[in-house]
Amino acid sequence: MKLRPQYLFVVVVVAVLVIAFTLGTIVNRSGRAAQAKTAEARGAPTVQTVLTPEATREYTVAIRGRTEAARSVIVRSETPGVVAATPAVEGAFVRKGAVLCRLNLDARQATLDQARANLRSSQLQQKASEELHAKGYRSQTQFLQDQAAADAAAATVRQAELGVEQMSIRAPFDGVFDRRDAEIGTYLQPGQACGTMIELNPLLIVGDLPETEASKVQVGATATAKLTSGETLTGRVRYAAREADPQTRTYRVEVAVANPQMTRSGLSADVRIGSGSGPAHLVPLSSLVLDAAGRQGVRYVQVGEKVAFSPVNVLEETASGIWVVGLHGPVRVITVGQSYVAEGQKVRATLAR
């Protein structure tokens, strides 16, 4: 059957419309797919990461401290007198027993001489009495009285010698005569100060432990102190307080270090005290961020390319980065873009160059 021209035209037009509609649908679907891919790409930002393995590291507790003398004693006079000499140089090292201040003997030397003369007389009397008693010319009572008199004279001599010895105020231990409080001509009453002695070897490094770190420090633990003078001293914890300061809520800790060079007391120090060992990670300093709660930590990429956050504690800062505690196993730490992503967000992670 032969179609009329007008019908043929209609069929052609309908066919063209069907083809145009089909092609439009395909194009629209492709466009929407491309837009979806573009939107997805825009929603998954690119970050750079570095793979950080877990390592074993010595744990330390870092505090701010200061040097302090192991002992500081104000040396005082035991007897009244006028200072006649000050042999010790202020600020100099002196040995135990060295004279710091010498008082004027006055009549004490004469008293000692008289006591010694009386002792010799009593000893001669005792010897004669002993010989007479042996021959039967001296009673037992008289002999014992002469012996007691000799003993009393000996006690008087010891007392007079002690009085003379007390005129020399001596160093109680090896140390530095740090400050003189009495000059020649000063009259000292019993209990008044000649000067101050300090012991600098061993030297103490003292500091205050916060409540969160107090349980990590044990007596005997090794410690290193870097002084403001540039010196580095090594020693061991000799004391860790069990009771907190009521004002600061901190615990005093003392580290004893050998100090043959007589480093001064009162210098500031950065102290690191060993507290065992355990897992740690070396991360770039720039990777540290704060979360919404203000905690310091790092953001890293989990399986599934999602961002996670872990709070960390800094162990030590080195030229290669910082050692932190708080991560577990190998971790892909975000080093670029960590401040612009949030926990749970999906990202595209690439290795940092």
Automatic annotation (TrEMBL):
Protein's recorded name: Multidrug efflux system membrane fusion protein
Entry superkingdom: Bacteria
UniProt-listed InterPro entries: Beta-barrel_RND_2, RND_pump_MFP
Keyword Membrane attributed: yes
Short name of one Pfam family: Beta-barrel_RND_2
Membrane-crossing segments per the record: 7-27
Protein family membership: Belongs to the membrane fusion protein (MFP) (TC 8.A.1) family.
Residues in the signal sequence: none
UniProt keyword list: Membrane, Transmembrane, Transmembrane helix
All copies of domain CusB-like beta-barrel, residue ranges: 208-275
Record organism: Phenylobacterium koreense
